[in-house]
Amino acid sequence: MHALWQDLRYGLRMLGKNLGFTSIAILTLALGIGANTAIFSLLQQVLLRQLPVKNPSELVVLRSAGPKTGHVWTDGDDAESFSFPMYKALRDNNSVFSGMIGRFAFSASIASHGQTERGSGELVSGNYFEVLGVQPVLGRVFSLQDDRTPGAQPVVVLSHQYWTRRFGGDPGVLNQTLLVNNTELTIVGVAQSGFTGIQVGQTPDVFVPLMMKGQMRPGDNGLEDWNDYWMAILARLKPGESIAKAQLGINAAYHPLLEEQSRKITSFNEQKRKEFVNQQMTLAPGSRGRTTLQRDSGTPLTALFVMVVLVLLIACTNVANLLLAQGAARQREFAIRAALGASRGRMFRQLMSESFLCAFAGGALGLLLGSWLMNILIPTVGSDASIHGLSARLDATVLAFAAGATLLSGLLFALIPAWRVTRAGVTQTLKDQGSTSSLGMSHVHFRKTLVAGQVAFTMLLLAGACLYTRTLWNLRKQNLGLQTENVITFSLQPDLNGYDISRTIALIDQLRDRITAIPGVRGEGISEIPTLTGDDMGANITVASNPQASEEHPHVNYDAISPGYFSTLGVPLLSGRDLNNGDSAKSAKVAVVSESMTKIFFPNRNPIGERFAFGGGKVAPDIEIVGVVKDAKQTHVRDENRPYIFLPYAQRKRLFGVTFYVRTQQDPLPLSSTLRDVVRQMDANLPVYDVKSFENVVDQDLFAERMVATLSASFGLLAAFLAALGIYGVLAYLVLQRTREIGIRIALGAERSHVRLLVLREVGYMVLAGAVVGLPLAYGLAHLSESLLFGVKARDPLIYVLDVVLIAVVALCACYLPARRATRVDPIVALRYE
To answer: How many independent structural domains does the chain possess?
Structure first.
């Protein structure tokens, strides 16, 4: 221990004597470790963290990928949507689970103490907290008694986060009432700290019993309808039960229920009925809850993590190069120490001590840098991607990762340089000190190899940056079918405040009139489903003149809009007429359809005047098509054009919410306060939310692409900078070692251009070696992440040509000073050089 302490003290003195080397090494490591810490923290919270519940490894998510009929609600995977009657039947008639829970996320208008705010809620089964093993910190949680009679249990459990934010952690909230979606609910408890539901990215403020669905979602009860798929189901395996065995057991209970349900569906032909009955229930691991967010963001985050690990490897290679240069300069010192009796092991330990001191300092600075990056990333992810519940705090797992990355980095950059420095013999080292031409030349070849590795990794990162930046460019430049400039949007959900459909339509009509009268407004329109936010609504339809197409394409998206919606967003009308104010609840039912809709259902004929109906079987087609509009992106910027039906909002039996689109003559954002005032004058208790420009809506839809492109470009630039430092360091050392040779060449009449060529040749060898390895690796990485690309392929040769050009520019910049120094060598001075 005493010897180790001596090594550390001596190491600190040596690092202090070489402040330039120490500062560069620590900063280089800090950049690599800090970036890795931030991205790993994001990766761990989204992809790796288990639910904070009892024995999360016993949880499974139920999935059934197969045909469905009726209403289907989904947040990305309809295989995880089930009806409430199916949930009850499976819960009460299986022998493989110790418990089965259901949940459904809903938007909430929460009023308390005279203030109304927009919030989020979760409808949960009575056994939800019991099966998960979540305890209350105050009061009680739900029980099966809260899950028996629809509308009979108006109670609510607050999330711990909402309790502390809204009520300041006041224990007196028990038995107080909250007005949630215009329904009085009694607060009976507060959930344990750290529990934010079973889906990463969603943080419900309140938990409400499933039996209150009719009150939380007015007009959308769905508690008795087998063909209304809206809730997700998780279950806990019995102790010792395997997923494979449980899957067999649950299917034995599932298929008889499907058989019974299929008999009541009149729209099925024999083939459809067979497919419906034969669908299989599969069980996915549920330790991390529902993985909807993970499916969307897993690949981008993994790609970013691979990139940031490469940055750390480049940083380690750079520091290893610095250590080799420093080791070569200290060869005489170690030779003398060896001659005085120091063992090779002791000298090796001394060098490793110095390296780890450097690594620990870099790790500590990297933690600060990583924390700073997280404080930038997390608010951005929360606001732009609407992913909530992520923390900028570096928890124990992230700290352990940072410590591990620090130790591994110390080993990576220190082990080989220390071994090479201490392996040289005393006699040979002292002999070499007398000749500059031979001094440390054994280190040069190895350092060139390290730089070639840096070039390979850098080309990998630059290729990724080019591909992802090109993807973002292509997405931004593609034709959306919409005009996004000078448009502001905001949303309302009047039904959550007790509005019935007639009051909602009257409110919308009055708001539209008032908004149109605002100076500077050029047009306005509304839609039930907000455009380009990832939401959609669909159903199966029956077309009177083409029932075969209805069988082949059972699912069609639809939306309710107002007159002026298309003109406000710049969507061209191709034929027929637009919706107008005469399309009311008392007039004939009409619809406008998209161009893709006509190609699928009405090929080679005019769709104007054709009729259809929602649903299958014996339905009367009572909706007339009066117009056709050009295809426009509705759900995501990335999406292919899909068949869409647009209905008058005044003919809807229920509106789940409305989003207003207001086109202005100039920048629309200054109008936001005016629009809020207009709504407030109509109803001061009606929350206005998602007030933003339409261009911001598009930016948010492209958040994943923006994040990947921005971070990959940042990592690529950082890698290029580190590679430039590595190339510069080797060339500067090489010019120093070959000073005598260069002086002789100049004395014998060599042109300055020939000397520059000598240096450039060394650069060319390193870049060529790196390119030979880096380009195939870049192609492999691009091929693996091709699902992230848009409008560009992994095999696009222009990307790799640009990659080579960029690394060549980096190399030329790095060799400028060494080449300039080489051409200015004075032959007289060089010949006297020791």
So the answer is: 4
What are the pLDDT digits (tens) for 673-708? Answer: 999 999 999 998 899 999 999 999 999 889 888 989
**Helix-, strand-, coil-residue percentages of the chain, each rounded to 5:** 55, 15, 30
Bridge partners of 71, per DSSP, are 228
In this structure, the number of other CB atoms found within 10 A of the CB of residue 1 comes to 5
* pLDDT at residue 769 greater than cutoff 70: yes
Residue 101, SS3?
strand
Strand segments (E) across 223-309: 228-229, 232-237, 282-285
Would the pTM count as exceeding 0.85? no
Rounded CA separation 459/273 (Å)? 55
Domain end residue (candidates: 232, 256, 287): 287
What residues contact residue 237 under an 8 Å CB cut-off, 6+ apart?
58, 59, 60, 96, 97, 98, 243, 246
Per DSSP, helices labelled H in 217-269 are 243-262
Tokens of 773: 């390895």
Q: What are phi and psi of 675, to 5 degrees?
A: -65, -40
Count the alpha carbons within 13 Å of 573 in the hemisphere toward its beta carbon: 17
CA distances from 139 to 178, 198, 203, 826 (A): 16, 21, 20, 86
Residue 414 lies in a domain: yes
| 693: three-class secondary structure by DSSP | strand
Residue 425 has pLDDT above 60, yes or no: no
Look at residue 473 in the predicted model and tell me its pLDDT: 94
> How confident is the model over 218-244, as pLDDT tens digits?
777 788 899 889 999 999 999 989 999
Residues 730 and 812 in one domain: yes
Helix H segments across 110-220?
Answer: 128-132, 160-167, 213-216
**Mean pLDDT to the nearest integer, 325-354:** 68
627, β-bridge pairs: 576, 592
Instruction: Judge if 280 and 360 occupy the same domain.
Output: no
Q: What is the pLDDT of residues 251-290, one digit of tens each?
A: 999 999 999 998 888 777 788 888 888 999 999 999 999 9
**Which of 686, 717, 740 is the last residue before a domain boundary?**
686
Domain that holds residue 343: 1-49+305-433
Q: What is the 3-state secondary structure (H, E, C) of 594-621?
A: EHHHHHHHCCCCCCCCCEEEECCCCCCC
Question: 9, 215, 13: which is closest to 123 by C-alpha?
Answer: 215
Q: Report the distance separating Cα 106 and Cα 163, nearest Å.
A: 18
